[in-house]
Amino acid sequence: MCDLPPAGHAGFPTTRLRRLRYNPAIRRLVASTRLAPAQLILPLFVRPGENLVRPIASMPGHAQLSPDRLADEISQAAELGLGGVILFGIPDKKDRAGSDALSASGIIPQAIRVAKRASHDVPIITDLCFCEYTDHGQCGVPSDATGRTDVDNDATLELLAQQAVVHARAGADVIAPSGMMDGMVGAIRAALDHAGFSHVPILSYAAKYASNFYGPFREAAESAPQFGNRRGYQMDPAAAAEQALREVELDLAEGADMVMVKPALPYLDILRRVRERFPGVPLAAYQVSGEYAMVKAAAERGWLDEQAIALETLTAIRRAGAEIILTYWAKDAARWLA
Ligand code: PBG
């Protein structure tokens, strides 16, 4: 007979968890959530022009850039070993149909070509949506059919399919549809395959919530809805969490290669559930503009330590299950981690 407690179940004083926190080297040894630049994706805003850097007031450190200025960013992203960049286009002229989004000479195709000349080491992801291109700021074709102003889902699919092919032809490495239309992934997959781009992956904004944390982005992309809101297609924060699993499941069935949860920090529960239900599916989280702006504002007042908070939030997002993080801190974080 042996009086020792079963292995692993010993209590104090045999077990002292503080032993694993004894010094930085031990803490590093047992750390299991690692952050690497290759997991971070940098969002960039592009608009037509030359030598243009138009700072975004609510997102210090970020600016709308002309394509020539984008090249510097891509080179830096390559040097820092970032996992990729995601491009958002702001056309000179927005119209009801969002026609710049469908043009081979539109702002995003221009930007992709510049980016590809700057480096081939940084995957170029393009956000696929209409809100940045339309004068009404909605993510698709407006419709009054139901008596309430909304977006016509199926009419929008056809346009998203065309937009995806425009991006792929210009050289986009990954297409990331963000409009939360039903059937969008299937429509885009079919169009890409038909046009000879069966190798181009889709990163779907699968569980995207109707969040107030997108406020600064809408300033950056000049894309605030001019009527109504996006609650008719983006998810309700109060919806059952399982609804996010249904969104992910459908997108995977339609051919999504990677899926995203957005925003990140207020939705870590959703991230964790998606991670557990769909192991093996690359999972991204978007730490959105409002998450960044809050910390920036508090740091400016000396209320929070920006670097420490940014790294802690990124670690939390990783720990919840995201292996890819879209973050406005991508470049800073890569430097801090070096
Ligand atoms: C839509 C899109 C939005 C964001 C990314 N893609 C805005 C929205 O849905 O209103 C927000 C990202 C952020 O807040 O950083 N094209």
**Low-confidence spans:** none
Rg value: 21 Å
Which series of helices and strands comes N to C? HEEEHEHEEEHEHEHHEHEHHEH
Q: Tell me what portion of residues adopts beta-strand conformation.
A: 15-25%
CATH architecture: Alpha-Beta Barrel
What is the CATH top level name? Alpha Beta
Question: What is the straight-line distance between the termini?
Answer: 53 Å
Q: How many beta strands in the DSSP annotation?
A: 12
State the CATH topology.
Answer: TIM Barrel
Which distinct ligands sit in these coordinates? Answer: ligand PBG
The number of distinct structural domains comes to 1
- Global outline: globular
Structural class: alpha/beta
What number is the mean pLDDT? 95
Largest sheet: 10 strands, mixed
Q: Total helix count?
A: 11
Portion of residues in helices? 25-40%
The CATH fourth-level homologous superfamily:
Aldolase class I
Could you describe the 3D structure shown?
By secondary structure, this protein is an alpha/beta fold. The chain has a single domain (34-337), classed as Alpha-Beta Barrel (TIM Barrel). Helix content is 37%, strand content 16%. The protein has helices at 24-30, 67-80, 107-118, 153-170, 184-194, 215-220, 241-253, 268-277, 289-300, 306-320, 330-337; strands at 40-46, 53-55, 63-65, 84-89, 124-128, 141-143, 150-152, 174-177, 203-208, 258-262, 283-287, 324-327. The strands form two sheets. Strands 1, 2, 3, 4, 5, 8, 9, 10, 11 and 12 form a ten-stranded mixed beta sheet that branches. α3 (107-118) links the parallel β4 and β5 (124-128). α2 (67-80) packs across α3 (107-118) and α3 runs parallel beside α4. The longest helix is centred in the middle third of the chain and has 18 residues, at 153-170. It is globular and about 75 Å long. It starts with 23 loop residues before the first helix and ends with a helix. The mean pLDDT is 95. The structure holds ligand PBG. Ligand PBG binds next to α6.
